[in-house]
Amino acid sequence: MFSSLSSLVVTAAALAVWAAYVTGVHVFAGARRVLAPMVRAEMPAFARGTAVVVWHVVSWVLASIAVATAAAAFVPGGRALLAFAAVLAGGSTVIFVRGAKTSLGGAIRLPQWMLLGPLAVGLAAAAFVPDHAAGVAVGLLLALVSAAHVAWAFGASWPARDAAELAAHVLPADAKRARTPTLPSRAATLAVAVVLAFMAVSIVVVRSPWPAVTIGGLFAARGLFGLIYPAWARTRGPFGVYNRIMYSPACLLVATLAFIVVAVP
Fold first, then answer.
1. Does a structural domain hold residue 147?
2. How far apart are CA 89 and CA 44, in angstroms?
């Protein structure tokens, strides 16, 4: 289907769509949950005006990343443009993580970095390994998620403040009883980490298309299931919101990149 296109072009197109999605989340969801409260807040006019302008600057930067990513594969010096976009997305990820930890006590409370982080990883892969960008991006993302599971298995609660907050954000609560979920056992968490690590290595190292097909199918199923199944997507607690806006779309991004590995020689 994409045999006449390069891996860089198709990967850049997928990442441009993701960047546009991140921009849309910021503009539309942010206007309601961030911008509107800032406008109504009791604060000095100069501080409020500065905060509103900064919000619009972020909108401009995100939109610029989306446009630059879409154009990068077709213009001279496109890889340098992708690298610069990766620096912008990566730096923004770090700022959100650090800011949430400092201001709110836990990085999970400002989840924008969960959208920007995958974008930064994908852009870096496209900039530095253009011939294998999609596979490397998937491998890196899965390796990072695997590392997080290892840390959770041994008692870490990052990016949340504690295990209860982590469980509430990464697992669905009981929709009828609103019961807060508990984290899985160490053995189960480590098992997930091993599977994710195996997937990460297989898509980067194995030349057969089957690892990419398997990863793409699994993550596509998870992403679609999380978006369309009401009892899952609309469960009580913070997981419901995070699942619809971040987890399920991110799974679809991983699936798309994995299928690019198969579709583009």
1. yes
2. 31
